[in-house]
Amino acid sequence: MSNTNSIKIYDTTLRDGSQAEDIAFSLEDKVRIAQKLDELGIHYIEGGWPGSNPKDLQFFQEVKSIPLSQTKVAAFGSTCRAGTSPKNDPNLQALIEAGAKVITIFGKSWDIHPLEALNITLDQNLEIIHQSVRFLKDRVSEVIFDAEHFFDGFKSHPSYALSTLKAAQEAKADWIVLCDTNGGTLPDEIQSIIREVMKKIKTPLGIHVHNDTEMAVANTLLAVKEGIRMVHGTINGYGERCGNANLCSILPNLKLKMGIDCVTDEQLKKIREVSRFVSELANLPHSKYLPYVGDSAFAHKGGVHVSAIRKSDATYEHVSPERVGNRQRVLISDLSGESNILYKAAEFKIDIQSKDPKVRGILDNLKQLENQGFQFEGAEGSFEILIKKALGQHKKFFELMGFRVIVEKSEEEGAPLSEATIMVRVGDRVEHTAAVGNGPVNALDHAIRKALEKFYPELKEVKLLDYKVRILSSRDGTGAQTRVLIESGDGKSKWGTVGVSENIIQASWQALVDSIDFKLLKEKL
Fold first, then answer.
1. Which of 136, 137, 156, 397 is most buried by a 10 A CB count?
2. Are 62 and 166 contained in the same domain?
3. Partners of 143 in the beta sheet?
4. Are residues 63 and 182 in the same domain?
5. pLDDT band at residue 479, thresholds of 50, 70 and 90?
């Protein structure tokens, strides 16, 4: 394969990615994402379709004032309409007016589209492609032609699909991108079709594939192996239907597995940060199971695995997580062995020797608690407290003397009122206070903080970030064992805590107390 180090990365998160269900980027979102993509080393950013909506047109005006170190911003649109000359076509005019240095247009390469969707002849479609590319090439320095539905078109009518590429080539397109728009082409088909295209087309080629068969990343990498030089995709694989090729998998694979320096080492370290940034602006949860960038990508749970990685990371990690801005994690569960305990103790900077009998005691306690319904994978704050209690390193910051939670509803339509009253002892002082909240747990949270903040003002920094409830056995109905997971943060770090009880208030209390204990242990020790 030639020219591997000249692979260009073309991101279409702002256009194709925003067509995903549940995603709607604001103008400010798009500008901020463009800056992040530039930091990542992306060569081309497809900013949107200026002929389709005012927001995209405004983006191209805004982005001109943003200093981008290496990225070229591309405007996207379609070929001119049948029966309309390029100079009179409002879509092409909008592309010119956007002022982008790169313009990408798509045209039909599957014979059923001009015949059935556009109601024009196959020759008319070729003329439209040629005229549109030629018109744009006379006015901007770089024109990219996306051959929409190319692989389906080639399988249906190979000679005609190739003739659409030739029309763009003769019109002097700078790049011709082969699109698997429906995402239904398999890897062996991608390879064989690209080999045929390479025999006929001399213009540099790109690849743009969708993920409807879960093949988008594989198809992209195989296309590169066949000589494709431009790779299209989106951050986190966002896109219409099942999404686009995921650049957060493609970039590390190109660089770390195929030796293609499409981005620098330092840029690659930012890929997890960019992945999370885009998911945050998309207002979507960041999938922990994403390869390379997900929280679980380098997480180890089985005791055998942890024992091995303590000796050599390579035993269960295919690359170093730091190369993609991630980190190794060891999970704590009933599958854990003593190696998990020792690993986590070292992570918490707790001094314990491997032969200390307390390690076995911690492990036995852990397995017993998990059998009761506790889960420490998302509650490392509670697990650190568990270890410190076993080692005699835990300090009791307050003593509960009692609490009462009242939920009162006075009228049919009104919202219920929740009030919590609590009495605690700190040293030789007793504090008795009450607070209201938008639910019993919220009221209890407010009450315990109100009682303790005068003794421990640092608790004012703590915010309850997330609260999850899981019923552990549906057989017992409303009397079922309940697990509560709480995530807390103080602006500097985040930690999870857990509680389990048949009473949801008691389970919540356990998790709340651990959250407070964790903060105070961190500050006081």
1. 136
2. yes
3. 103
4. yes
5. low
- At residue 476, the pLDDT reads 61
How do beta strands 102-108 and 72-78 pair? parallel
Q: Percent of the chain beyond pLDDT 70?
A: 96
In a domain, 77, yes or no: yes
Measured distance between the N- and C-terminal CA atoms of the chain, rounded to whole angstroms: 58
Q: Which domain holds residue 435?
A: 398-455
Note whether 23 and 15 are within 8 A (CB).
Answer: no
User: Over 70: is that where the pLDDT of 2 sits?
Assistant: no
Taking only the tens place, the pLDDT of each residue in 270-303 is 999 999 999 988 988 889 999 999 989 998 887 7
Domain contains 150: yes
In a domain, 291, yes or no: no
Q: What is the dihedral of CA 370, 376, 377, 378, to 10 degrees?
A: 130
Number of domains in the chain: 4
- What is the C-alpha to C-alpha distance for residues 103 and 495, in angstroms, rounded to an integer? 47
Strand ordering across the sheet containing 417-426: 399-408, 417-426, 429-437
CA distance 32 to 23: 16
- The CA distance from 48 to 13, in Å, is 9
Whether the Cβ atoms of residue 519 and residue 487 lie closer than 8 Å to each other = no
Give the integer Cα–Cα distance in Å for 196 and 154.
Answer: 10
User: Residue 195 sits in a domain of what CATH number?
Assistant: 3.20.20.70
Look-up: residue for tokens 């659409």? 164
pLDDT tens column, 485-500:
888 999 888 898 999 9
Check if the beta carbon of residue 244 is closer than 8 Å to that of residue 219: no
Which has the minimum average pLDDT: 96-105, 241-250, 260-269, 348-357? 348-357
Q: How far is CA 274 from CA 248, 354, 355, in A?
A: 9, 39, 42
- What is the reported pTM? 0.73
